[in-house]
């Protein structure tokens, strides 16, 4: 068979040589040991935790080694392209402090551009042509129906499905048959002519999983589709070689394709990059664990964290906790450190499923937010509210002094211990709502209406805004005694049957009347912040 003539017929024209490309995309000028990593998402518009998981790993490995991390867009599957998707990836990851040095919509060293696979058609064709010339790739004219029939036959015979060995019908077409098909205008794809034998297995070192065993590939995978667009496999080999990636970090789903990639790199004459396959994020679902699902789990989407107003550092801390087994201990010792100082290592990553637990993230969030100053908290809330809050919530920021007093109280700043009531911006804004808006609903009052009416009335009559906390509390006790409630807790505890309740119950009635809630920070301070008029209005509203 004249492979050169065939290559010319299939992909006519002159293409640059391997040497030309090698010179055009030279090895990167980086210090020894510097790693080049990349995130290579498809622009589907859906950015998820798995992307963040990979991206933090990429970014940490690159930057800790003095290397670079770039963004490549794998848009060969045009059906999935969504407008604005690339910007969305960048901004979603920026939110979590993952910044790329180079790539699509970022720029950087143009030597390795373009970073969109659709704009790299020529290079894929050049190498497909080269493989055809060398007899390592061939045209396949099988139709969808042919392939479906093949799959059904293989399934029936309990054999591995795919296009390989004796099943690879077009692999051994004669020159005459090939040209007949071409003359008839039949569409074709280009397939790799695999030389592997899956019975033969090799040891392979994965940067994350450690030593694994990988069989040889025997699948004649498609490298160029009928429209001349490469498949993931082929584009991956060419791009990661010429963009000079040193270590490919990707999800463990790709391990199954590793044999293909090993053979493709060899066929192309490229050295194999190192690989690290990280495990999937799992969710506990009753007794079992399953992968997080786009359909069932809103928390899979990174948008979720922005909309809910998660504090970016908290999410990053949690991700690092999941990513490196020794992070938690390091962070306990260095709670205020720059997270980038943590000595991140691929080999410290989990080798099997990682459990993602929103409750754990929420605990971390509470902890992280409790460390902020009132001013930083106000800034954090404002950024969220201006994008996602209601118009009423946006008005909370008009009186900054009041807002800072609210936050100081709600965060327990200046108290013995910081409070940990805030989890996210949306939740915190709900939490402080009663300072700015009259309660619309009230948690259940535990006492009869006439009891609480008397209590509220008497409290209102004796209320003086100027009273300090002690005088104020003494007054609450008086109201308690006057209504059959114990003024002192120890009196109540000694003989609960003798009383309607205790001063704590009286305070609860006042608290619900004021805030709608049975649990809040210090009530006297709340009344101070609300102001005399508002205190009176809220109680009167309930009395009428
Ligand atoms: N486009 C692939 C994906 O989104 C990239 C996998 C890789 O990183 O190589 O899964």
Question: What this model shows, in words?
Answer:
The model has no long low-confidence stretch (mean pLDDT 96). This protein folds into 4 domains: 171 residues, Rossmann fold (3-Layer(aba) Sandwich), CATH 3.40.50.620; 85 residues, Glutamyl-tRNA Synthetase, domain 2, CATH 1.10.1160; 62 residues, no CATH class; 95 residues, Arc Repressor Mutant, subunit A (Orthogonal Bundle). The protein is mainly α and 544 residues long. α11 crosses α13, α19 runs antiparallel to α20 and α19 packs antiparallel against α24. It contains 24 helices and 15 strands. Strands 1-2-3 form a 3-stranded parallel sheet. Strands 4-5-8 form a 3-stranded antiparallel sheet. It starts with a helix and ends with a helix. Glutamic acid binds next to β9.
Quick gist of this model?
The protein is mainly α and about 550 residues long. The protein folds into 4 domains: about 5-15 and about 120-280, Rossmann fold (3-Layer(aba) Sandwich), CATH 3.40.50; about 285-370, Glutamyl-trna Synthetase, Domain 2 (Glutamyl-tRNA Synthetase, domain 2), CATH 1.10.1160.10; about 375-435, no CATH class; about 450-544, Orthogonal Bundle (Arc Repressor Mutant, subunit A).
Low-confidence stretches: none
According to DSSP, the number of beta strands is: 15
Query: Please, how many helices?
Result: 24
Classified by CATH, the class of the largest domain is: Alpha Beta
Mean pLDDT: 96
Rg, alpha carbons:
33 Å
How many domains? The number is 4
State the main characteristics.
544 residues, mainly alpha, Rossmann fold, Glutamyl-tRNA Synthetase, domain 2, 4 domains, 3-stranded parallel beta sheet, 3-stranded antiparallel beta sheet, 15 strands, elongated, binds glutamic acid
